[in-house]
């Protein structure tokens, strides 16, 4: 019965062009990446220009970060051996936590930081630990899946407000009788690239005795003068802030951290199940991340963010012009000033066909479909890296210009 049920599910996904497939990369994460089975040639590796990675600053293959990882492995070995609370918490972890806490302390007073193996695990820990029966969770409907799942697993009741509708959020807060109120939001929404109105959200939190939990997975390293993230970008400072940043995107390695008031961090250490019951991040990764965090904050990080901003402006200008010249293509460009640029196509099969047509020209741009995005809003999620060049951006836009001028047959793509 189980196999029949799963087979039916698979057939339904195929019929609606929602099947997910993995592709095997044969080379390191970089703008030019060798990928197995590209362009329909199964098993034949081919170099593609990659516009799908979240390596926003190009640090995943940076020589200093790679050297630090090798040095960390020589010093600390390959693994941590146990959870953080057993024997897995090394000096490399403690040093990185102290460095991250120092980076966030101008925005979160007296901040302490706590490392996790992934942003997903960090969000689960925060919401299930703080979301007790005495709490209420208020979440933007376009929040990342980890925030949604964390809210569903919590004992607190979760209420979701339409994306960006802070007027409705305020009404919910006014009606709330629970003594603990948690407002939960992405800082940069991962599929559209827009930035939450964090100043207005913090104002609501302060006026309604709530705490603001921010997932800044796509802002840490990118936003702020020194890459401190969305809090620095807006100049926010409050004890009520609980900040989650990931370390596998702009930082180029892996893992995540939560920065918050010391009492909140202690609660996560004592009760966060996804912190307590998992093996600690390999200390070699923490060692490499110390090098990455230093790069983000230094002069090179400033230059890379400037390059990223310039590439983003060029891409947006060109995409907007293409859409204006070819309105019949039906594409829409989501509002975003971040390295995430969503070219909304609409139909699932059409988005896949467009991605396949680009792939045939050596351009790797992933098609994103429901349930990751709302039905009818399938898209190409174009992401930029500081390691891209202007010529790379123009090459992508030149290809899209041609494809916008003529309809693409969807065929049997699924």
Largest sheet: 7 strands, mixed
> What is the terminal-to-terminal distance?
25 Å
Number of helices: 15
Shape call: globular
The mean pLDDT is: 95
The third-level CATH topology of the largest domain is Aspartate Aminotransferase, domain 2
Q: H/E order of the elements?
A: HEEHHHEHEHEHEHEHEEHHHHEEHEEEH
- The fraction of residues in strands falls at 15-25%
CATH 4th-level superfamily of the largest domain: Type I PLP-dependent aspartate aminotransferase-like (Major domain)
- Going by CATH, the architecture of the largest domain would be 3-Layer(aba) Sandwich
Q: Compute the number of strand runs.
A: 14
CATH class of the largest domain: Alpha Beta
Q: What structural class do helix, strand and pairing data support? A: alpha/beta
- The low-pLDDT segments are none
Instruction: From the alpha carbons, calculate the radius of gyration and give it in angstroms.
Output: 22 Å
Helical percent range? 40-55%
Strand order of the largest sheet: 3-9-8-7-6-4-5
Number of domains: 2
Protein architecture, described:
- By secondary structure, the chain is of the alpha/beta class.
- The chain folds into two domains: 28-57 and 302-404, Aspartate Aminotransferase, domain 1; 63-297, 3-Layer(aba) Sandwich (Aspartate Aminotransferase, domain 2).
- The chain has 15 helices and 14 strands.
- It has helices at 2-15, 63-76, 84-88, 91-104, 119-130, 145-153, 166-175, 198-207, 230-234, 262-271, 273-276, 283-297, 299-325, 348-360, 390-404; strands at 32-35, 46-50, 112-116, 135-140, 157-161, 180-186, 210-215, 241-246, 256-260, 332-333, 340-346, 363-364, 367-368, 378-383.
- The protein has a seven-stranded mixed beta sheet, sandwiched between helices. Strands 10-11-14-13 form a four-stranded antiparallel beta sheet, covered by helices on one side.
- Strand 6, helix 8 and strand 7 (210-215) form a beta-alpha-beta unit.
- Helix 13 packs parallel to helix 15 (390-404).
- It is globular and about 60 Å long.
- It starts with a helix and ends in a 10-residue tail after the last helix.
- 49% of the residues are buried.
């Amino acid at each position: 019965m189980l196999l029949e049920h799963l087979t039916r599910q698979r057939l339904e996904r195929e019929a609606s062009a929602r099947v997910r497939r993995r592709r095997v990369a044969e080379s390191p994460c970089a703008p030019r990446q060798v990928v197995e089975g590209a362009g329909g040639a199964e098993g034949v590796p081919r170099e593609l220009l990659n516009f799908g990675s979240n390596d926003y600053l190009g640090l995943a293959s940076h020589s200093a970060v790679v050297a630090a990882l090798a040095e960390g492995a020589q010093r600390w070995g390959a693994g941590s051996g146990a959870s953080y609370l057993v024997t897995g918490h090394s000096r490399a972890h403690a040093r990185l936590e102290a460095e991250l806490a120092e980076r966030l302390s101008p925005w979160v007073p007296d901040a302490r930081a706590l490392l996790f193996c992934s942003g997903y695990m960090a969000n689960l820990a925060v919401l299930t630990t703080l979301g007790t029966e005495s709490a209420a969770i208020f979440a933007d409907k376009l929040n990342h899946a980890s925030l949604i799942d964390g809210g569903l697993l919590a004992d607190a009741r979760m209420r979701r407000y339409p994306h960006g509708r802070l007027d409705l959020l305020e009404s919910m807060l006014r009606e709330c009788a629970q003594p603990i109120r948690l407002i939960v939001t992405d800082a940069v929404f991962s599929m559209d690239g827009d930035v939450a109105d964090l100043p207005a959200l913090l104002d609501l939190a302060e006026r309604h005795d709530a705490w603001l939990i921010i997932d800044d997975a796509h802002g840490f390293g990118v936003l702020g003068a020194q890459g401190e993230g969305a809090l620095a970008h807006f100049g926010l400072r409050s004890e009520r802030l609980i900040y989650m940043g990931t370390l596998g995107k702009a930082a180029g390695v892996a893992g995540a951290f939560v920065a918050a008031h010391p009492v909140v961090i202690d609660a996560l250490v004592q009760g966060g199940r996804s912190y307590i019951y998992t093996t600690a991040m390999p200390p070699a990764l923490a060692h490499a991340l110390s090098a990455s965090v230093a790069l983000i904050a230094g002069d090179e990080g400033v230059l890379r963010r400037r390059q990223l901003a310039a590439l983003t402006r060029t891409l947006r200008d060109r995409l907007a012009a293409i859409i204006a010249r070819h309105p019949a293509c039906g594409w829409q460009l989501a509002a975003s000033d971040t390295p995430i640029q969503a070219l909304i196509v609409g139909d699932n099969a059409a988005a896949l066909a467009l991605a396949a047509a680009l792939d045939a020209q050596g351009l790797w741009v992933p098609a994103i479909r429901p349930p990751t995005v709302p039905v009818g809003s399938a898209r190409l999620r174009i992401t930029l890296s500081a390691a891209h060049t202007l010529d790379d951006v123009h090459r992508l836009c030149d290809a899209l210009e041609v494809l916008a001028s003529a309809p693409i047959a969807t065929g049997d793509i699924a």
